[in-house]
Amino acid sequence: MPLRGAIIPVTPLQQNCSILWCDETMKGAVVDPGGDLDQIRVAVEENGIELEKILVTHGHMDHAGGVADLAEQLSIPVEGPHEDDQFWIDQIEESGRQYGVVGAKTFTTDRWLKGGDEVSFGNITMSVHHCPGHTPGHVIFYNKEAGLACVGDVLFKGSIGRTDFPKGNHADLINSIKTELWPLGDEVTFIPGHGPMSTFGEERASNPYVGDGVVD
User: Among 37, 66, 79, 167, which is 20 to 30 Å from 18 by CA?
Assistant: First the structure.
């Protein structure tokens, strides 16, 4: 299977920054470099990866605070999130100061993403799914061949994303999970924005917020 990955928890909020790469070409992408760029670059170098781009699930500072600096350091493009998260990107620096994410900076994306788009690096292609609720412009990335999804703060092992932030919407989040994630298949393994990995099947069976036995 050509898709490989590593998870680097970054920032005081322990956000799961993911490094994904093609084992055939050793070209890759970093998903949600929220901060602690030295740690990210060490992992990239240790694995011999040539980063081609930065992928962003949403505009919160713990996921995107290091995007601007990393893009500048490596001269690579930024793809994502959906343009409805522009207002979050605009306040990254203020949010970073509030939550202790040192050096968080606003960034300019090279490509807004929407549902149905694809992103690629090396010989790997990932489909883009727009999953509003936690933020209005949240997207997730899915590779069918590997059965792997990077879902940001949409879904966690045993929980779901917060919806009490500005423009968050609980009903939208539940709908996103049920209509965009579940149809990908129970066997799909996902990397959440925080905490341990899980599978969609496990969450459908036991998640107290969005499992199949939960009444809306």
Answer: 167
Give yes or no for a cis peptide into 12 (omega within 30° of 0). Answer: no
pLDDT tens-digit readout, 57-114: 999 999 999 999 999 999 999 999 999 999 999 999 999 999 888 899 999 999 999 9
| Confidence band of 1 (pLDDT split at 50, 70, 90) | low
Distance CA 204, CA 120 (A): 29
Order of all β-strands in the sheet with 189-192: 118-121, 124-130, 139-143, 148-152, 189-192, 198-199
Ordered by start, the domain boundaries in the chain are 3-206
Phi, psi dihedral angles at 50 (to 5 degrees): -100, 105
pTM value is 0.97
DSSP state of 111: B
CA atoms of 201 and 127, how far apart (whole Å): 20
Strands 124-130 and 139-143 turn out to be antiparallel
Fold for 3-206, please state it.
Answer: Metallo-beta-lactamase; Chain A (3.60.15)
Q: Which residues of 65-77 are buried (b: 16+ CB within 10 A; e: fewer)?
A: bbbbbbbeebebe
